[in-house]
TrEMBL record:
It is found in: Cell outer membrane. InterPro entries: Beta-barrel_TonB, Beta-barrel_TonB_sf, Plug_dom, Plug_dom_sf, TonB-dep_rcpt-like. GO terms for molecular function: siderophore uptake transmembrane transporter activity. Residues 263-686 form the TonB-dependent receptor-like beta-barrel domain. CDD domains: ligand_gated_channel (cd01347). It holds the Pfam family Plug. Belongs to the TonB-dependent receptor family. The keyword Zinc does not apply. It is a multi-pass membrane protein. It comes from Caulobacter segnis (strain ATCC 21756 / DSM 7131 / JCM 7823 / NBRC 15250 / LMG 17158 / TK0059). The lineage of its organism: Bacteria, Pseudomonadati, Pseudomonadota, Alphaproteobacteria, Caulobacterales. This is TonB-dependent receptor. Gene3D superfamilies: TonB-dependent receptor, beta-barrel domain, TonB-dependent receptor, plug domain.
Length: 722
């Protein structure tokens, strides 16, 4: 069992076609399950719109419940860091605002809030891990592997953040939290957070509103050196975050509910530090040759500091007793604006504007989504044991990337429209011991790009716009067999779908006479995932093992160009992996031990001969990992100690030939219940291990801009409910 503290997270399997339609954002099902979930079946029914138990579904899902999530956020400060710590096959984070290169099973996951996608696949700004404050997240559902019915982008899996539910009883309730964080320096490393949530319920109506504000200081490594800022992509250190949350519900009748959920999240860099890399005059400021990480000094950052803003509004209607089945319908609006830091990068230079090497610029991604989803599920009349789900998803996405200092378009306004009906069935045989599951999704996509001209760096090429469209039939199927109580084995096949980072491809066109309608590089990525798994839940043991392999004929790789900007290359990609997780209750009351291991290998085809021949590098696959943890609860005390060991890997056969040395870090958490509220202490990197982050250690061999990981960092917090 993964992600579990005592009485906390639970393990489940979920068929690849279950669509996270934000059902946890509202609905009668959620209203009935507001009590803390102790059975994963209850959670899956809410989040994945199915009336079936978890044991009926043949794919892997991990659920991080509120207790586990609270612990991890107290240690690391964010949802994405919590998930990356707990899941062995999730790559270690960059500890920056950008999540580029962070993968699940070697592929990009789809981040969602109540099922609403937060990604911008047309021009991936890689900020989708920071779109809501964790104070407003009740639990996180992590779905592994390619999954077409999650919508566009779920080739590696889905990270669905389920927000807090409505109040349980009539009257006023809420909670308040305050915390402070300190690093190796008690000056500019100090940060703080205040958050509050108030709920009201009266009869059929309820409302919840909250605000969270956080100020982060500078980060320091284990040697007491300030960690370099990523002034271009964005950093979470030296920043301020304001998050607003609201939820309004109406229980129309006993089976029908309307929910409106709104969230606004903004993270702004303060711009107080300038990153310095090694030079002949100052070799101590960062050097890859000596593995001395980049540092930062106080100074004025030119232009606007990097920042991100996301606004999401959804309306969900659920009826769990409509003609013998369950209906869920949702409308949503999502808008994001990501500003990146600026510089005089070679890519931005244009001698028609300023002399070469003198032109300063910075970019901003702007994306707007409008979507609708609906599904209906019920037992099929006249066919005992057969349950069917039918649905329809629609999405309209408009994205562009502007150079805001000069008013140029780096990526032209690009529209993406998708209409996708689907059907899914689950058939129980032999009294439910054997189940067959399968379904199909019909994806209809149109991309619209107007005529545009690329930047001078790419030759000021005139590109003819167009309306390329793609149609795909995406299938999935699986079998679940339960030969004995507590033992399950399953196998599944699922196809996932996404578009490549179209913006990167379009902006990098450097040849003449290109017509978008016939440009091969914007064809979609279809990945398939095959998985075999087994679970044992008997007595004090909860164990699971899964082996998977996935491939895509026309995949997507990030490759750095001469200007230091990542471009997209389309190549065949094949990935395989093994995941093992074990948890055991010990004879000592309240003490649980757990372990997790993941081994991943990936290769790509670099010479277009149809055969994979080169290993994936650190920007495209995570390292092997071993997780160990111990949880102990007694009386008013709760304690956790955990370790993550990222294993070394030789990369001389990879795209980027920069070996990974590996490192091991440990964290600790303790919580004590007070007469009023509870006080907690989370410590990240308990033994103050000095290391380089995986991403910067394996993807930038020709650059001295490398970042150390955070040294020992402590967060003291207090929280109470009323």
């Amino acid at each position: 069992m993964r992600f579990q503290t005592k009485g906390a997270g639970h393990r489940a399997v979920l068929v690849s076609s279950l669509s996270l339609l934000a059902l946890s954002a509202g609905g009668a099902a959620q209203a009935r399950s507001e009590e803390p979930s102790t059975a994963v079946d209850q959670v899956v029914i809410t989040a994945a719109r199915t009336i079936l138990p978890a044991s009926a579904l043949p794919m892997t899902v991990d659920v991080v419940d509120n207790e586990s999530l609270t612990q991890q956020v107290a240690i690391s400060g964010s949802v994405i860091d919590a998930i990356a710590t707990l899941s062995p096959s999730f790559s270690p984070t960059r500890q920056k605002l950008s999540g580029a290169g962070e993968t699940l099973r070697g592929r990009s996951p789809l981040y969602a809030i109540n099922g609403i996608p937060q990604s911008t696949p047309i021009r991936d700004g890689s900020r989708d891990g920071y779109t809501i404050d964790p104070f407003f997240v009740d639990r996180v559902e992590l779905i592994y592997g390619s999954n077409a019915l999650q919508g566009i982008g779920a080739t590696g899996g889905v990270v669905n953040q389920v927000t807090v539910g409505p109040p349980k009883q009539d009257g006023v309730s809420g909670r308040v939290m305050a915390q402070t964080t300190v690093g190796n320096d008690l000056g500019d490393a100090v940060g703080g957070k205040l958050a509050g949530l108030v709920g009201w319920r009266e009869g059929a109506f309820d409302a919840t509103a909250g605000v969270a504000y956080e100020s982060r200081g500078a980060f320091y490594d284990a040697r007491g050196r300030r960690i370099g800022m990523d002034n271009t992509q964005g950093d979470v250190q030296d920043s301020k975050t304001l998050s607003l949350f609201g939820r309004f519900g109406w229980q129309i009748d006993p089976s029908t509910r309307l929910d409106i959920v709104a969230n606004r999240f903004e993270l702004k860099g303060d711009g107080d530090y300038v990153t310095v890399t090694g030079t002949a005059a100052a070799p101590t400021d960062g050097s890859r040759a000596t593995r001395l990480p980049t540092t930062a000094y106080r100074g004025v950052v030119p232009g606007k500091p990097a920042q991100g803003r996301v606004e999401t509004v959804s309306a969900s209607l659920t009826d769990d007793d409509l003609y013998g089945g369950a209906l869920t319908a949702q409308l949503f609006f999502n808008r994001s604006r990501d500003t990146f830091g600026g510089d005089r990068n070679a890519t931005f230079q244009d001698t028609s504007i300023a002399p070469s090497g003198t032109l300063f610029d910075q970019s901003s991604n702007r994306s707007r989504k409008l979507g609708a989803r609906a599904s209906y599920e019920r037992a099929v009349p006249g066919v005992e044991g057969l349950t069917a789900t039918v649905g329809l998803d629609a999405l309209n996405d408009r994205t562009e990337q502007l150079l805001i200092a000069t008013g140029r378009a780096w990526v032209p306004p690009t529209k993406f429209q998708s209409l996708a009906p689907f059907i899914q069935g689950n058939y129980a045989l032999l009294g439910g011991k054997l189940r067959l599951a399968g379904g199909v999704r019909f994806e209809n996509v149109e991309l619209k790009v107007d005529d545009f001209t690329t930047l001078a760096f790419y030759g000021s090429r005139k590109v003819a716009g167009g309306n390329p469209d793609f149609k795909a039939t995406l299938a999935n199927g699986g079998v679940v067999f339960e030969p004995a109580k507590g033992l399950r084995v399953y196998g599944s096949y699922a196809e996932g779908y996404t578009v490549p980072d179209v913006g990167r491809i379009l902006r990098a066109i450097n040849v003449a006479n290109v017509d978008v309608d016939t440009y091969l590089a914007i064809e979609p990525i279809v990945s398939n995932n095959r998985e075999l798994g087994a679970e044992l839940k008997r007595g004090p043991f909860d164990a699971s093992v899964a082996y998977f392999w996935s491939s895509s004929k026309l995949g997507q790789l990030l490759v750095k160009n001469a200007g230091g900007i990542f471009d997209v290359q389309r190549q065949r990609v094949a990935i395989e992996g093994l995941e093992v997780n074990v948890k055991a209750r010990t004879p000592v009351p309240g003490l649980d031990l757990s372990a997790g291991y993941a081994r991943l290998r990936g290769r790509t085809d670099t010479n277009a001969d149809g055969k994979v021949d080169t290993d994936l590098d650190g920007a495209n696959i995570s390292p092997d990992r071993l997780n160990l943890a111990a949880d102990y609860q007694t009386g008013k005390w709760a304690l956790r100690v955990q370790m993550q060991s990222y294993l070394s890997r030789g990369m001389q056969s990879a795209l980027v030939k920069d070996d990974f040395e590996g490192y091991t870090v440990a964290d600790a958490f303790v919580r004590y219940q007070l007469p009023v509220g509870a006080v907690s202490l989370g410590v990240q990197n308990l033994f103050d291990k000095q290391y380089l982050t995986y991403y910067s250690d394996t993807t930038l061999p020709a650059k001295d801009k490398i970042y150390a990981g955070r040294g020992r960092t402590a967060t003291l917090g207090w929280e109470t409910r009323f």
